[in-house]
Amino acid sequence: MSSPILSTDTSRVVHGACPHDCPDTCALRVTVQGGRAIKVQGDSLHPTTHGALCTKVSRYTERVYHPERVLHPLKRVGKKGEGRFARVSWDAALGEIAARLGEIAARDAQAILPYSYAGTMGLLQGESMDRRFFHRLGASLLDRTICSSAGGEALAATYGGKVGMHVEHFAESKLILIWGSNSIASNLHFWTYAQAAKRNGAKLVCIDPRKTETADKCHRHIALLPGTDGALALGLMHELIANDWLDDEYIERHTSGWPALRERALQWPPERVAAVCGITALEVRELARDYGTTQPTAIRLNYGMQRVHGGGNAVRLVAILPCLIGAWRHRAGGLLLSSSGWYPIDRQALQRPDLLAGRAPRTINMSTIGDALLADASPALGPKIEAIVVYNSNPVAVAPQSAKVVQGFAREDLFSVVLEHFLTDTADHADIVLPATTQLEHLDVHGSYGHTSVLINEPAIAPQGEARPNTQIFRELAARMGFDEACFSDSDETMARAAFGDAVSFDALREQGWVQLPRVEAPFADGGFATPGGRCTMVAPGLGVPDFVPNYESAQAAPELARRYPLAMISPPARNFLNSSFVNVKSLRDIEGAPLLEMHASDAAARRLADGQMVRVVNDRGRSLCRLQVSDRARPGVVNGLGIWWRKLGFDGTNVNELTHQRLTDIGRGPAFYDCLVDVEAA
Ligand code: SF4
Hints:
The protein is of the alpha/beta class. It has 25 helices and 28 strands.
């Protein structure tokens, strides 16, 4: 039984955790009165989030009790994409799914594809019974690359894991580079610490093509061209060498590969960097001076900058910088991209890969789902995808090159099942939609990628309508498919207890709502990287010396394309949305207004476009209608298409992914969303 924090005759308060794809993973307190959740607040006792929630989640009850919640299983009665369904019973829905999957699996289970990501970050509802089910079935494996794999694999190649500074220590830093992150919108609690540092005299520098709300509040903003971060990092190295701002002892004792990288960095004087990045040589020199002469100095890197062809190399280069100046010697120095590697999660216990029983199904990359769904059977690919089961994701809106994704999901011969809260663009294409519970209606346990505490999410209210937790849905599907292994009978609580094994006391977790992991304050003060040699690895096996890799779609790599489509487009999340989540929450959508394209006045004038007019963003892959916002949030040569709108809630049934492509990052096989050339014309 869950234990409420506080219980009176009329109300109780329950421990929760924010499930969304955000590094903060806030601890929640949900107030329930008469069986109804009336308030979702932050837990003021949680050490890193301190009780503050972002606007999105403070309105969580609007999402839970949204009149358009899917509350019953639905079966398609219209054409794919029309979103016309009839209500069916759970028995009928599960019976049909089990029959169709069973029939396909009898030929080749690899023709079945699970598709999920971080719609919930919970370990139970995101990666437990579902994985067991698909492993036992022998379905295709999914390469979950859509957000962070370029940076994650690059960081692991350099440090040995996805680990870094502790977020609260940024409050003691004297210089903070906020690199590729609109922290106010997407890493709110880090921003609180950065503000504390600022009050203590720290200098804040924002490195981002877009002049974000965060850039507004930093001392300096470096608006480099998208995809040129690696060149800037090499330029900083050049200046650290030229001015002898290196910590030679730290480099000697705790890194490997510096001589080769040093040679490369010497080829990047500030003038070359300036020409590539679209900034001035003085900006490079001044940033290097600040970085080389201030201690403790810290970098908050985020995943925005790695969604380009050279994203992996860029992360390697940036991650090496703190080693060159010995920033890691201080707990307020170093870098944080992700803290997820600190968590002792027992994924074997949760996901049970042993259920593959020696089979090695093929792997499909989620970032190229458009191509994958349209591909025929071949010796290289294996069987054509005949069935897809989507949960915790909305690929029709969020996957790149929408035209192909939509065409794939519209295949009449594709059997598709979608577990959802709402009729999203993806659910509209489903044969069967199953109503899933929201975070207030199920049990879960969470790690984080921005701090180091484990959190529990107790069910606060009963499932709405006939909604069921993902775990229960896959448990029941397993039973219908005749999977009789004992693990398919595990309850959610059994799995929650197994998630961290003995590393975390489940009773303490239940009592307090969160448990802080034991940790080292300054993790690499004396080296001790998790690489095989214990050193920061500058020249990683198979990856060579890190280098600047230009965008696929750039003047350097594709001059003819750049002549036809001279504007680089990035598509960062709108402040009140979280990827495609919350777009259907009316009060948040009203704040955003409409799909906006930010453009610098000089680019607008060159095209005779005026603020507020409707424009069409175009390239060879497609076109999308937006409202133009002439704004200095966009630098010359770059437009910002704020996302990610549901296609059906946009102006013309499209969104920015109509323009993006499916080519992959240099490391990690991720999507290159921000590596995209376009032009803009009056609509
Ligand atoms: S989205 Fe982020 S900041 Fe907002 S409540 Fe969730 S974890 Fe906290």
